[in-house]
Write a structure and sequence with these properties.
The protein is built from 3 helices and 4 strands. It has about 140 residues and is of the alpha+beta class.
């Protein structure tokens, strides 16, 4: 199914209610804290996206392309992105806390096909990687 860009669409929004953030600090265990926690997590996600971070995966991990490591990687097909894993949740005996953990991702530019072609060409030329011979039938 493809989208041709033609036609008219509408979206209906319905008011569902208020989210009381004071419920986060309630000592009453019967108070539902899922909506305020979800709201706080969405706020953090929107803030990081406004700061030009990209979400990779589904575990609230946000990364930004980093130039700090460019010299260390050199002429390899690698790119280092630094970022954060965030979560607002109940920790340590029903206390609301925010987790912000530093994280890094190393991403490759080339595909597996590109890597296999490179290995094959090195093996054909008798390059320094003779042990990595590739059998092609």
């Amino acid at each position: 199914m493809s989208y041709s860009g033609q036609g008219e669409y509408s979206v209906a929004l319905e008011y569902d209610g208020n989210i009381d953030l004071n419920n986060l600090f309630s000592k009453d265990n019967s108070v539902n804290k899922t909506q305020p926690l979800q709201y706080m997590n969405v706020m953090v996600k929107n803030l990081l996206q406004d700061l030009k971070f990209f979400e990779i995966g589904t575990n609230a991990q946000f990364y930004q392309k980093s130039t700090d490591f460019q010299n260390q990687v050199g002429k390899t097909p690698l790119d280092v992105w630094s970022g954060y894993k965030t979560s607002v949740d109940m920790y340590d005996g029903m206390k609301v806390k925010m987790l912000i953990d530093f994280s890094s991702r190393i991403l490759r530019y080339n595909s597996v096909n590109d890597q296999m072609k490179e290995l094959f060409n090195q093996a054909r030329k008798g390059g320094r990687n003779r042990r990595q011979r590739v059998n092609v039938e």
